[in-house]
């Protein structure tokens, strides 16, 4: 058995991680905050980007079929129809499929066996093709009407530079789902569901479970395929600055979103990576606070304004500024653009920087004070990020102390450089989302774009 993953940087003392001889990765974390509950997750590195054009939704279809034919159920005998309420859930995105369930310690072996069945393809049952198809048709029909889905179709292809990405959304396309054969499902599963392409995460009251022995017993018998996982290839798109106008009838508020593509940086160490992420978070938080304060000083009303980092498709990372308003989105967007231009040109003053830094550190302390207890779900998410993106795993106390020390050491010069890197980004997309067309001409679109240059 191989040594622990990233053991040098792992500050989570209760974590045990490693790789079985067949390439199957595992993470075990002892977390007793949820009594006898254990959260188990299986991740397979396969999603909609691995699909051929005529297979749109096949990864999602396999997820549903594996869940549909799972034996890990709770039988509700009070129900006259004696329906089985499945405890296993899942989701599929562009690059991963994840299955998860909560169980008791006494059920751990049975739960792991269900995940083994998924990897082995035992849950692919030809007689359930029609039922699974009906499930997906219902989900696709409902979700495709949602504002989120319609905006994904419009914005994501422009963001990542894959023009046909709207045809590769994980949900799938109705005509492709309808035409899938059982042979198609089997071939796709056999190609991607491999131990070296998968990881299991066990988080909860695991102390008495002998998890490592169970993992060995359940999963080590699966043969390694010796086929290396190939990450989906796409060109790192260099877009010219652009403005989109998306009309979505069901939106509650008008929105303006600024997407800034971050450059791909390869760090020499985990410490450098972590410092960069903390610095970035600190910077976005301060910029968000500065813009909000400036808007309020001008008595500009808005529903919300948030500046966040968003990761799409492996190494594509964006800083996203989103403004929501009840009315007057164009005028209020202009206010935001002018504030950004001023901030990008002049940065913060020393006095402003000290004030915002003190406020940030206070809010950071309050946040960590209130979040000392971490759920099984949250810990699992952190472990998944480590598996997929090599993000360091650290304890809450260590993370808090590290955040404070890094932020305290940041100078005004460092911060103003960060501002410049964000706002003078060559890869910028502005998306206006509204119930109606906000622009009368292409010239007006270009005028809006120039406001943020």
TrEMBL record:
Q: Which PANTHER family has this protein been placed in?
A: METALLOPROTEASE, MITOCHONDRIAL-PROCESSING PEPTIDASE SUBUNIT ALPHA
Q: What protein name applies here?
A: Peptidase M16 domain protein
Q: Where is the Peptidase M16 N-terminal domain?
A: 28-155
List the Pfam families. Peptidase_M16, Peptidase_M16_C
Q: Which UniProt keywords apply?
A: Hydrolase, Protease
* SUPFAM superfamilies linked: LuxS/MPP-like metallohydrolase
State any GO BP term from the record: proteolysis
Could you tell me which residue ranges the Peptidase M16 C-terminal domain spans? 179-359
What EC number(s) does this enzyme carry?
A: 3.4.24.-
**Which intervals of the chain form a coiled coil?**
none
Alphabetized GO MF terms: metal ion binding; peptidase activity
The encoding gene? pqqL
Q: Which family does it belong to?
A: Belongs to the peptidase M16 family.
């Amino acid at each position: 058995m191989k040594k622990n993953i990233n053991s040098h940087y792992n500050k989570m003392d209760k974590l045990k991680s490693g790789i079985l001889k067949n390439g199957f990765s595992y993470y075990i974390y002892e977390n007793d905050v949820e009594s006898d509950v254990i959260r188990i997750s299986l991740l397979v590195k396969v999603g909609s980007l691995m699909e051929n054009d005529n297979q749109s939704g096949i990864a999602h279809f396999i997820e549903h079929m594996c869940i549909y034919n799972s034996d890990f159920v709770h039988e509700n005998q009070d129900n006259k129809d004696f329906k089985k309420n499945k405890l296993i859930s899942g989701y599929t995105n562009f690059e991963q499929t994840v299955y998860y369930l909560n169980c008791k310690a006494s059920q751990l072996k049975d739960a792991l066996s269900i995940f083994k069945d998924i990897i082995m393809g035992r849950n692919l049952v030809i007689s359930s093709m029609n039922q699974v198809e009906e499930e997906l048709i219902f989900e696709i029909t409902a979700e495709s009407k949602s504002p989120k889905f319609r905006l994904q179709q419009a914005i994501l292809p422009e963001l990542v530079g894959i023009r046909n990405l709207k045809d590769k959304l994980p949900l799938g396309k109705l005509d492709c789902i309808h035409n899938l054969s059982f042979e198609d499902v089997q071939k796709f599963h056999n190609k991607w569901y491999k131990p070296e392409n998968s990881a299991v995460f066990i988080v909860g009251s695991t102390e008495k479970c002998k998890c490592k022995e169970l993992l060995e017993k359940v999963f080590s018998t699966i043969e390694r395929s010796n086929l290396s996982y190939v990450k989906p290839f796409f060109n790192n798109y260099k877009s010219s600055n652009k403005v989109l106008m998306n009309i979505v009838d069901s939106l509650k508020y008008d929105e303006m979103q600024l997407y800034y593509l971050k450059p791909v940086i390869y760090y020499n160490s985990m410490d450098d990576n972590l410092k960069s992420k903390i610095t970035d978070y600190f910077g976005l938080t301060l910029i968000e606070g500065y813009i909000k304060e400036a808007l309020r000083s001008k008595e500009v009303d808005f529903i919300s304004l948030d500046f966040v980092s968003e990761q799409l498709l492996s190494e594509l990372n964006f800083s996203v500024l989103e403004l929501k308003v009840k009315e007057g989105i164009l005028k209020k967007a202009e206010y935001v653009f002018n504030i950004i231009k001023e901030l990008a040109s002049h940065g913060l003053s020393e006095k402003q920087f000290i004030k915002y830094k003190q406020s940030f550190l206070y809010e950071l302390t309050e946040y960590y004070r209130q979040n000392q207890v971490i759920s099984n779900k949250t810990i699992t998410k952190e472990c998944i990020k480590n598996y997929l993106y090599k993000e360091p795993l650290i304890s809450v106390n260590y993370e808090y102390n590290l955040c404070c020390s890094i932020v305290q050491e940041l100078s005004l010069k460092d911060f103003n450089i960060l501002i410049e890197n964000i706002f003078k980004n060559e890869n910028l997309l502005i998306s206006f989302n509204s119930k109606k067309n906000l622009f009368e001409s292409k010239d007006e679109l270009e005028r809006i774009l120039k406001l943020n240059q």
